Automatic annotation (TrEMBL):
NCBIfam families: HAD-SF-IA-v3 (TIGR01509). It comes from Roseomonas elaeocarpi. InterPro entries: HAD-like_sf, HAD-like_SPP, HAD-SF_hydro_IA, HAD_sf, PGP-like_dom2. GO terms for molecular function: hydrolase activity. Pfam families: Hydrolase. Keywords: Hydrolase. This is HAD-IA family hydrolase.
Amino acid sequence: MPQFRGQNYAAFLFDMDGTMVDSSVVVERVWREWAERHGVDPATVLAACHGVRSEDLVKRFAPTGIEVSGEVAVILAAEVADIEGVVPVEGIGALIESLDPGRWAVVTSAPRQLAEVRLRAAGIPLPKVLIAAEDVERGKPDPQGFQKAAALLGVPVTACLVFEDSHAGIAAAKAAGAQVAIVGKLAAEVEGHHALVDYR
């Protein structure tokens, strides 16, 4: 069983962007251009874009009358075509190599096509279980993605450890009843029992 800080877990469930793959340069580049094109304050969009589905962001910020599915398709095409600056989070490769392939999964707000492109660009093997944006009816902060990943791995989600870097992802993991370990800068902002993770 995967072990983290002396405790065994049934499985590890990883968010992707910011947790396994550092794609922040691309994410901010694409969403800044989208916001400027539609006359939306880029800073407001960028503050909300991490950890949530493109569909949900477009619904929240797009001007009235915008066709959501068309905008989502444009954004996806831009993100898939732009992998400059996509790199693995330091130390994640060694951690993944140490895990049984049946004991970890990825739960991302990115569409499957984009998730596969970014994981490959970062040199991270594709997981046996990958829950992407189109695999759930409700994205993070809803727990559905983590619940579905655990079910496909054949383990209770309450016995899993989730690695996350966004408020939406942490809320989703907690709502699922999983334990949470925070990757990156967010740990300093979050109160509670969460642990800051350094994969190195």
